[in-house]
Design goal:
The protein is of the alpha/beta class. The chain has two domains: 173 residues, Medium-chain alcohol dehydrogenases, catalytic domain (Quinone Oxidoreductase, Chain A, domain 1, Alpha-Beta Complex), CATH 3.90.180.10; 129 residues, NAD(P)-binding Rossmann-like Domain (Rossmann fold). 27% of the residues lie in helices and 29% in strands. Strands 3, 5, 6, 7, 8, 15 and 16 form a seven-stranded mixed sheet that branches. Strands 11-10-9-12-13-14 form a six-stranded parallel sheet. Strand 13, helix 8 and strand 14 form a beta-alpha-beta unit. Helix 4 packs across helix 9. The two termini are 15 Å apart. The structure holds NADP nicotinamide-adenine-dinucleotide phosphate. NADP nicotinamide-adenine-dinucleotide phosphate binds next to helix 1 and strand 10.
């Protein structure tokens, strides 16, 4: 049972990783339908770096202090009326930022039990798989034999998407940095190309974009029945990205759609099934303790990360 205060990561202004600091904040009190979780691990997501830097302030506003961390793996402390019991190892993602903390109260339907023998860091590395499943299966409706292009094939979302695309029977082309091309192939890419010098890429039935820039150029690579799922903002022009995606989202063909990730128990269970079947595996690049979360952000910002940077809460 937590005391009335706990350790959490907060920031009082937008800026570099150094703005993140460990502070004492009130421990959460779970509301109706919520579960109190003692956080063991969380992953660092590209979107959080953008949020912390202030590049997304048109969406994130100017109210401080802010909390950070969107997903979690942890043990159930207070299950409330949910289907969980005390001590269950669960994973999921909240509606509000703030999983970089000792405890987090979260709606029970945004959690599922972790199985497949994953440890907390491995499980945390896989949570962006929810985004990959939503993008490829639910939005793009990727079919066997289709040509899939993944921009960012070895990053946090991309390393799961590459495995998933292969498992779904697509012909996968992965764009990654030069040092990670071998990894992209290991993950299942049939073709892996350096995104700085990709050469002629050809046409694709589905493009998963985790970069946000040059959407117009990439859309031209879609086949007549092609679909592009764009999950990232061009951080120099976030509102423009939103406008471009919205303007092309309702087209019947060669559409471009985005979405905002929404971890739910059924999606988490689907992810577990892919893992159990041996079709998707975790990939932890580096683990940082909670107090060194600024280093974790710095590591992701420097680029070249293989899979996920994970933060562990002891
Ligand atoms: N809408 C949603 O629900 C949702 C959910 C999750 C994430 N996202 C967004 O998706 C984006 C990616 O998140 P993430 O956590 O996967 O980030 P990440 O781990 O930093 O991965 C990004 C990857 O893109 C690669 N990359 C950089 N520039 C590229 C380029 N020009 N062409 C191809 N690849 C390039 C990077 O490679 P190197 O580092 O090796 O250069 C890196 O592997 C973020 O903007 C995030 O906000 C959206």
């Amino acid at each position: 049972m937590p005391s009335t205060s706990m350790r959490a990561i907060t920031y009082d202004r937008y800026g570099p990783p150094e703005v993140l600091r460990e502070t004492a904040v009130p421990a959460p009190v779970p509301g109706p339908g919520e579960v109190l979780v003692r956080v063991r691990a969380l992953s660092v997501n590209g979107g959080e770096l953008a949020m912390r830097s202030g590049k997304l302030f048109p969406f994130s506003g100017k109210r401080f202090p802010k909390r950070i961390g969107v997903d979690l793996v942890g043990e159930v402390v207070e299950p409330g009326t949910s289907r969980f019991t005390v001590g269950d190892l669960v994973w999921g993602g909240g509606r509000r930022m703030g999983t970089a903390a000792e405890y987090y109260a979260i709606a029970a339907d945004r959690l599922d039990r972790v199985h497949s023998g994953l440890d907390p860091a491995q499980a945390a590395s896989l949570l962006a798989g929810i985004t990959a499943i939503t993008a490829l299966r639910d939005k793009a409706r990727l079919k066997p034999g289709e040509r899939l292009l993944i921009r960012g094939a070895t990053g946090g979302v991309g390393f799961v998407a590459t495995q998933l695309g292969k498992a779904m029977g697509a012909h996968v082309t992965g764009l990654a940095s030069a040092k990670n091309l071998e990894l992209a192939r290991e993950l299942g890419a049939d073709v892996a190309l350096d995104y700085r010098e990709p050469g002629h890429l050809g046409k694709f039935d589905v493009i998963l974009d985790t970069v946000g820039k040059d959407l117009r150029e990439f859309r031209r690579m879609l086949t007549p029945r092609g679909r592009m799922v764009a999950i990232a903002f061009d951080l120099d022009h976030p509102v423009r990205t939103l406008g471009y995606v919205a303007a092309h989202s309702l087209r019947a063909t060669r559409w471009v759609r985005g979405f905002s990730g929404n971890p739910k128990a059924d999606l988490l269970a689907d992810l577990s099934r892919w893992v159990d079947a041996g079709l998707v595996r975790p990939l932890v690049d580096t683990v940082f303790p909670l107090g060194a979360i600024a280093d974790a952000h710095r590591a992701l910002e420097e680029g070249g990360v293989r899979g996920k940077v994970v933060v562990e809460v002891s």
